[in-house]
Specification:
9 strands; alpha/beta; 12 helices; about 15% strand
Length: about 270
């Protein structure tokens, strides 16, 4: 059963005939203080915000997000800071979807029960743990469900029908479709192939299917937004922040460009 907030946001986007705008930043990058302002800036342009939990060995991530984790950890970011930043975002944006994204080590070290309890209290809607596949979900599924947290699962271009069915059975909230066979920040796959695979997954599940990995430009976001239920942009925003003299202003502009492209992709206005 999906969280009412995630259900509501995807229903709202469907009623407006558009894809959901989903942004990602690593919590604590480049430090917890500036991270708060950056997360709030991105949240204002998004329907759903993915907040990365910094980790020392983010194996699914490319150099851009690896560096973001390293900066956050070097600045002393702790899981307590992740929850505090999340609470601040939730307080400012009551209807925003919020998903914590990261690796199993973080909740495992804390204990899944305490992690889920604190995530729920901070206003989190769902959790995406990239290294816990559905087959291994017994370690966390029941605990997350007990705290009304959706378990977001990943599918990829190589996912067979059996894996798609498994994700539909064990996941909730939405399906995160990885557009390429590689790490975050790599180049997006062929758009026709992405469209066909997303359509195949959409036919097999009632959950929204959101596409991420490799979407770096407003034009690419618009292409994906024509058929996906959500468009996830991460490395592009992380790079924007890392390269800018004024990270907040640069992120505001980059996020507005992506949001406008997604809103207009099916012929609507940018409202």
């Amino acid at each position: 059963m999906s969280s009412s907030r995630l259900n509501a946001l995807f229903e709202r986007c469907r009623s407006e005939d558009r894809s959901a705008v989903i942004g990602y930043l690593t919590a604590g990058d480049p430090n917890p203080e500036l991270s708060r302002e950056l997360l709030l800036t991105l949240a204002a342009q998004c329907d759903l915000l993915e907040i990365g939990m910094p980790f020392s060995d983010p194996m699914a991530d490319g150099p851009v997000i690896q560096a973001a984790s390293e900066r956050a950890l070097a600045a002393g970011t702790h899981i307590d800071d992740v929850f505090a930043l999340t609470r601040d975002v939730r307080a400012a944006h009551p209807e925003l979807g919020i998903v914590l994204m990261g690796y199993a080590n973080v909740p495992y070290a804390m204990g899944f029960e305490q992690f889920a309890e604190r995530a729920q209290a901070a206003g989190v809607d769902g959790v995406l743990l990239v290294d816990i596949p559905p087959e291994e979900g017994a370690i966390c599924d029941a605990v997350l469900r007990a705290h009304q947290l959706d378990r977001i699962l990943l599918l990829s271009p190589t996912s067979p029908d059996a894996r798609i069915a498994l994700a539909g059975e064990h996941g909730s909230g939405f399906i995160y479709y990885v557009s390429l066979t590689g790490i975050t920040g790599a180049d997006m796959g062929d758009i026709a192939e992405i469209h066909d695979k997303v359509a195949h997954i959409q036919a097999a599940t009632e959950m929204p299917v959101c596409v991420g990995f490799g979407i770096k430009t407003a034009a690419q976001a618009a292409e994906v937004a024509r058929f996906a239920d959500g468009v996830v942009v991460g490395s592009h925003f992380v790079t924007t922040v890392a390269m800018a003299d004024d990270p907040v202003a640069a992120l505001q502009e980059a996020a507005a460009d992506i949001a406008t492209a997604v809103h207009q992709a099916r012929g609507g206005d940018a409202g």
